[in-house]
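Hi L., both proteins are below.
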Amino acid sequence: MKGLLKKRVVAAFLMLVMLATVAVPVETQAAAKVSKSDFAYKVNGKTTNFITEAKDKYSYYLLLTAEGNKSYDIYWGIQKAGSDVAAKRGIRLGSSEAKIQKSYGKATKKSVTSKETFLKEVKYELPHIDTSEWKSYLDYTYKEKSGSYRLRFYLNDKNKVVSIAYFKNFQYLTNYPDQELKTGLKFIAPKGKKVKTQTIDGHTVYLVPSGSKYYMDKEYKTSWGKTSFSDFHTYLVGTKGQLIAQSDSDGAAFKKRTDVSDLWENCYMIRNYEEMLNLKKVGKYKYFCIKFIQTEDIIDGKHFAPQMIYFKIV
């Protein structure tokens, strides 16, 4: 009798152990589908819906970065200061990839390459934006009668959000060629001094001594003969990534040594378009960026992206 009772106790104990080790399935709620409400963003406590903002625009995008709210469409560029930046579903700058995938659902992470359409758009149209931390991104899409929309989270090498972008009709963004112009621009330092380089935000920046000159020595064949690239825009970028000054299209010297100040003499201040840039009053800044533009539709049978050259006066 005692032996039978002992066997029953052992059997009951084994059954309890088995029940304790069986995994009990837990139901997890799938992320809700992306909707119009997910295109609301918050900057400095103010919430705006991107879709509503873009209703009268054919193609538009908004880029939220650490410097604040940088928005741009095909026709106009706008800056708004801000640091409190957030998307919907609790995602903000610094959020993890895991949190995004849990909140918005699974998405394929893609690597950022030099050929990525929006990276080139920012490079050529918003040269004051630092994209050096953009290593990969996650996309979420939504479509309605007014257009196709895309929400993108740019991640750094630690899989943390460093920028958030919203798009309307992404497919109509400019698809810049992969090959850039080569203007042959050269800086000539005064006697006894040298032009050096430094890497800033992933760009090679020329450190140009005060009093230097510059010239360009590259020509291309066009349908009507040879041409140099005389059209360019100049941007002055501040230490915090803000755009301080810029110029409209100017003419550059070709095969003629000209004082380097010629490259920014027509720049106007962003804070006041009627005020011209006085570099001596600016103080510290990050760099100048010059965008050289293709002046002919086809050159040597090709289309080229702008050439971007970065420099500082030292």
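That was the first. Here is the second:
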Amino acid sequence: MRGKKVECEYKGSKIEVFLKDSYFPPKSIEQLSVDGKVIAKNELSPFRLFSRIVSKHSFDGIDEKIEVRIAQGVRSVRIATQIKIGDKVIGGSESLQYPDIDKLNLRIGKGYVQYFLTFGLFRFGLPFGIFFSLLHIGDIAPWSIGRFIFATVTFGLVMSAFFWSWLKKSIHQLPKL
């Protein structure tokens, strides 16, 4: 089991985030602690696109919301962690590729067919169809057009189904704000 630890200070309190991933058995543990006391913990699938931990804690007698965002870092393939209190980033990475959850809920809520037509077909299917057509550039025109359409639609359908279900599962695993 590999792990990552992110620490920061806020109003004299030490805030720590522990991330542990295990692929056999598949499990990811995300833990938020303040001054050594665990205040929130998530156990999820390690195969997720993003995650967050949300909790409230009293700093100097004032209850404040702590939000930890976990996603891919900007210009990086590694996981990045951002610790926020209110709207202010107090620790971890300054920037990460955390999606707008409301936009994702809207996109997922419209259904798979809408997701395929507006996103998957152009993002996945079209580039694959063009590449596949370039591989068979010398073929007879009617066959190449049919092959292009078949490759575009088929690859777009498969990749859209994969990403749509993955996003849907990732969104439903998030704790509510």
